[in-house]
Amino acid sequence: MTDHNSDKQRQLDQYRVDDTNSRYTTDQGVRVEDTDNSLSIGERGPTILEDFHFREKVTRFDHERIPERVVHARGSGAHGVFQVYESLAEFTCADFLCDPSQQTPVFVRFSTVGGSRGSADTVRDVRGFATKFYTRQGNYDLVGNNFPVFFVQDAIKFADFVHSVKPEPHNEIPQAQSAHDTLWDFVQLQPETMHTIMWLMSDRSIPRSYRMMDGFGVHTYRLVNADGKGTFVKFHWRPALGAHSLVWDEVLRVQGNDPDFNRRDLWEAIEAGSYPEWELGLQLVPEEDEHKFDFDLLDPTKLIPEEEVPLRMVGRMTLNRNPDNFFAETEQVAFCTANVVPGIDFTNDPLLQGRNFSYLDTQLLRLGGPNFQQIPINRPLAPVHNDNRDGFHQHMIHTSHTNYSKNSISGGCPATGVLAGDMNGVFKHYTERIDGEKIRKRSPSFADHYSQATLFWNSMAPWEKDHIIKAFLFELGHVQRRYIKEQVVDRLANVDAGLAAHVAAGIGLPAPAARGSNHGKSSPALSQDNQPAGLATRKIAILAADSTDAGALYPVLQELESGKAVCHVIAPHEGMAGTLAVDRQVSAAASVLYDAVLCTGGEELCGNGYAVQFVREAFKHGKAIGALPDGEALLRAAALPGRQGVIDSAAGDGFTGQFIAAIVKHRHHDREVTAFPA
Ligand code: HDD
Questions:
Q1: What is the pLDDT of residues 389-436, one digit of tens each?
Q2: Considering the entire predicted model, what is its pTM?
Q3: Which of 38, 117, 123, 310 is most buried, judging by how many CB atoms fall within 10 Å of its CB?
Q4: ipTM value of the model?
Q5: Distance in Å, CA 378 to ligand 1 centroid
Q6: Alpha helices, DSSP H only, in 227-275?
């Protein structure tokens, strides 16, 4: 199912190339006789320079790659639409936020940050969540992440931070990992990182799916209404499926089994018509309340607790179409925080101010010059008229005899709002009075680096705290220099003495002296413990064999599939298992690629190590396990050390309902077992 209805799709249609029933030509449109043999002197002689087809083919191949993004190199994109629920004209004059009848086309790119284009999807990292709205007033880019806070406060520190987390310069190790000395050296010397580091050590950094993660604009932006009145705003994307994560041991195994795990998941869901959805939520703060918080709204290492300023849900985004060509769309899409439309403006957040410079600059290099805005995926739907001219890859043929403003020769066109005497829909910068000295200095209101790190820690459920401690142990366990570990643990003492003590004990250091006292505040909205969840698109592995009792299985399958779960039959061999068509043979499958397991197959599977391992691993990773009567032998063979989330014939008629309820719980964290090697 594809959506051809939006204006953006119609615009892209002009550039889509369909090779069906076509003839092979050169780039000049000349038909080619043969592309398997180069032109040579005699059958065994040298290739000759005259072969323009050969030269063109090789040259084009040599030039296929462009520089990958310096950060967020690995990503996946999709098209969709956004619609606001009701007019927000009280706060903003942005047309797309004021007209509930309007569907605004969007292109969204999700990404990891640190890894190269070819790195695995499921690494511990922030995820990018960048949305391009093709509005009637021009393109608006909301370039966010799945964390609401950032590592540094000032854009001048971005290169330092990125250098520290990237592979180390002398040997380019490790790829797409934060578990190494330079990152943790940066962290211990730059305590403003500590809040975001807490998010990075939490399960937020290993999302189950791009469809199951939040998005945040991070900075405080400003909405501006038609009267020029400003309102501070934080943007949030809330996934309809809830924000869910993998567990770390699972992550390590997914990387080998399917490095494209998140990319594939997004692609397959859209192909299957299970269109991912997010609600747009706003936290709105009147200008006059700017200083009522115990942190600075301009500080990007701080969030506004939802308990203080609740989210107002204002619209919905649905992703409903996969790109036709990865390079043309996902790779060439160019986002920029400075792409705003009337009604949305910046604040003086020093990270945002720097970003507004960096994104245009990076596209000029990455996409080879100033005309990248004309690449189909980047073209606005709004008409573009100005006096910008020429440059590499200019696609437009400007017919005007003038390219300056003001002019009289072209009747003064294109005319600015002022010249045309028509201010309708022009972008007007928010009028803000600024008085100050030219200084290179961080505001003292940015100085508290720990209170919100503590708030985050306090808000975690016990299992989330456990995961955070284990994440610190993994990360610091990969740090070579002991003094760096000591310093990090010392910093942690400012977050929470118990956390610091646990980490210190794990890496063999004395517990640091407690610093101050934990303020005891929490924000329940920060926990992933109570996320909405459903059965739709959950992947269920049906372990089966020739002797599977299909009669008992079919009604369960039917109910799972009517709830839009995706069921795969996994058996010792491909082909048929009894009357069931097999999707994967068990040695080529892995439990980490599924959300739940249903055991069948009688004694036949008990001697199959892959099947037994499958069940044990699913248990270890907290997944729902069901056993039909003919699957209970396999359950026994797996010798599971607990029963939480394990449903068998004891459930009687309630089996399917209980199994589904166990799946919907996402993970049974109460049963995670470290002393149980899967
Ligand atoms: Fe950035 C890419 C998000 C800080 C400089 N950034 C990039 C992308 C996302 C973000 C989602 C990928 C866009 C895509 O899919 O093409 N970046 C953020 C967030 C930040 C942030 C949420 C903090 C709140 N970034 C940040 C700073 C700077 C940059 C402070 C520079 C001073 N970011 C870039 C960049 C990238 C980029 C180098 C690389 C590729 C690109 O822009 O197009 O310019």
A1: 999 999 999 999 999 999 999 999 999 999 999 999 999 999 999 999
A2: 0.97
A3: 123
A4: 0.99
A5: 17
A6: 248-257, 261-271
